[in-house]
Structure formats: structure tokens, C-alpha cells
Design a protein that fits this description.
330 residues, mainly alpha, 12 helices, flat
């Protein structure tokens, strides 16, 4: 009935060529358990989305894409090069949406929005992206709990149905209060969230009643002490997780702001050639340093805000045994 760690079958991930390079980033966190839903496709799409939204630039994205192609074909680094190629393409797409070419927003018209001219919209949009990605994470979690027939966590856990409903109710209450369209009042959403928190506290005995197993695995006192702290952690993690996605909009603004700083320094120089050199150095600095920071921040959002909802990473990679023979040269 219960697969102990180390005794489950090994896992082999199979993904299409577009998503396959991102398997290396999945492996840095841990392999999916046997039977667990492979997160690579969702990880790849969301990672490209987050990186492009924070580092949207047509010219700088092209440089990253070319660097990825060079790493793939000249340095034999298929995974890293493939990741850079896809992130560069995403950056180029968002650069077209933002109207940004090597930091300049004067060369092309944006198809969607200019970040620095719409600061509030960028920050709100970042929150909306976070809500959508977190919702998909909860769906993945429900699928995994169903696959493992985990009634306790799947129905009553904070990453299960109860936690998902708590998250949706909180989003409904916050958005309703912010827009002034919460006609039912704040009392009902708060009552629903309180009931859901109680369900999470009593998840083990409720699961025991449904499955016919023991109500408590250990002492009830120890269980309720741990469950009480778990409720506090649930409230804090849901609230901080939503707020954490503001960094997506903030880094998009920071990206535009850095170029403005270098452009201002270039204008202060009397020499046109000197101004061009400053802009070139500025773009190298932005691609190298900010590109690395955005790469890390996107990975941080994936690992801490999304993986924590649905991914265990306790699996063992499938590595087949290879048999070979040595021929005698005699």
C-alpha cells in the first residue's frame, strides 16, 4: 500500500524537444516521483513567461538567443544553450509587446504596453499572472493527490481542495474589496476562509473517518499543536505568495529604468562616439547582470511559490545499466 522512499520505481521523463532542455532545471530541484505528474511542460511555459515579462527586449533578447545557439552548437551544451535560446525568444516577444529595442522605447511602437508609462498596470498585471500560475499549481497538486489516492492532503490539506478553495476565496475577497464590487460584504468570505482553516486543522481525523483508518497517527495533543502552526503558515504563505509575484512587474520597470540611467549618462557626454560607447557598455551590463538576476528570480518563483504547491521531487532518475564487452586485440 505504501511505497517507501528508495523503493519506488525510477522515473524517466519524456518531453517534446521544445520543453526538453528545462528538464535539467527540474532535476536541480529533484526528480518527479514515479506516478507523479511531470511538471516540465508547465515549468517551461511559466518560466519563459516570467523571464520574458521581466526582461522584455527585442535586441537584448536576440543577443541571449544567439548566445544560446552558440552554446548549443559550438560548446556542446545542449541543455543550457537550449534554455538560453528559448528565454531569448521569449524576451524578444515581450520586447515587441513593450516596444523595447536594446532598452530604447523610441524605435518601435509597443503592441501592448510601455512599462514605464503604465506602472500600476504592470504591477497589477504581475499579480494576475501570479494568481493564474498559482491556480494551475493547485490543479497539478489535486491531480497528483488523486493519482496517489491521498485523501487527507488531497481533500483537506493546504495544497489540496481545502487550500485551493481558501486561495480562491481570498482572491475573491481582495479583488472585490479593491474594486468595490463585493456586494455580499466581507463577512461571508471571512467566514468561509475560517471554516476552511478549521477543515485543514482537522484534516487527519476527517480523513480517518472517510477512509476508516485511525483518527490520529500520533498523540492528538502533538497533532493539534502542529496543525495550529500549520494554519498560521498557510495564511502567511498564501498572502506572501501572491505578493511575491509583484517582482515580475518590478523587474520589468527596473529593466527600463536601467537603460534610462545609461541613456542619461550618454546624453551628458559631449562626444557622440562616447555616448554610443556608454550605451553599448550599458547594454552589456544589463544583459549580463540583470539577465542573470532575472534568471535567478524566475527560478525562485518556480521553486518556492509554485513547486511548493504541487511538486515533491523525491523520485529517482532512471539510469539503465549498460553492458559491453572488450574484444581482444590478439
Amino acid at each position: 500500500e505504501e511505497q517507501r522512499k528508495g523503493h519506488a520505481p525510477p522515473t524517466r521523463m519524456k518531453n517534446n524537444p521544445l520543453f526538453r532542455p528545462f528538464e535539467s532545471l527540474i532535476g536541480m530541484y529533484g526528480m518527479p516521483s514515479y506516478g507523479e505528474k511531470d511538471p516540465t511542460s508547465f515549468f517551461a511555459i511559466s518560466y519563459m513567461l516570467l523571464f520574458g515579462a521581466m526582461f522584455g527586449d527585442l535586441g537584448q533578447g536576440l543577443v541571449i538567443l544567439l548566445g544560446g545557439l552558440f552554446a548549443s552548437y559550438k560548446m556542446a551544451s545542449k541543455n543550457f544553450g537550449g534554455i538560453l535560446t528559448r528565454l531569448g525568444a521569449s524576451s524578444m516577444i515581450f520586447g515587441i509587446l513593450y516596444g523595447s529595442v536594446f532598452g530604447s522605447e523610441e524605435l518601435i511602437e509597443p503592441l501592448l504596453i510601455r512599462p514605464m508609462a503604465n506602472i500600476n498596470t504592470m504591477l497589477i498585471g504581475a499579480i494576475i499572472i501570479g494568481v493564474i500560475l498559482t491556480t494551475i499549481s493547485y490543479v497539478y497538486s489535486l491531480i497528483n493527490h488523486y493519482r496517489f489516492r491521498n485523501v487527507e492532503e488531497g481533500l483537506f490539506g493546504r495544497e489540496g481542495l481545502a487550500g485551493f478553495l481558501f486561495f480562491l476565496t481570498l482572491i475573491f475577497a481582495i479583488s472585490g474589496e479593491a474594486t468595490g464590487k463585493l456586494t455580499i460584504g466581507i463577512g461571508l468570505p471571512l467566514a468561509i476562509m475560517a471554516v476552511l482553516l478549521l477543515v485543514m486543522v482537522f484534516k487527519q481525523p476527517l480523513s480517518g473517518l472517510l477512509t476508516g483508518h485511525r483518527l490520529y497517527e500520533d498523540s492528538p495533543a502533538d497533532y493539534y499543536i502542529e496543525a495550529g502552526f500549520g494554519v498560521i503558515e498557510t495564511v502567511l504563505s498564501v498572502a506572501s505568495g501572491i505578493i511575491s509575484f509583484i517582482r515580475v512587474g518590478a523587474f520589468a520597470l527596473n529593466h527600463a529604468g536601467l537603460y534610462i540611467a545609461f541613456a542619461t549618462m550618454a546624453e551628458m557626454l559631449s562626444s557622440k562616439a562616447g555616448g554610443i560607447i556608454v550605451l553599448v557598455i550599458g547594454n552589456i551590463f544589463i544583459i549580463g547582470l540583470e539577465g542573470l538576476v532575472v534568471f535567478i528570480q524566475s527560478l525562485r518563483l518556480e521553486y518556492y511559490e509554485l513547486f511548493s504547491k504541487y511538486y515533491s521531487g523525491y523520485g529517482v532518475e532512471y539510469r539503465p545499466v549498460s553492458l559491453f564487452s572488450e574484444r581482444s586485440t590478439d
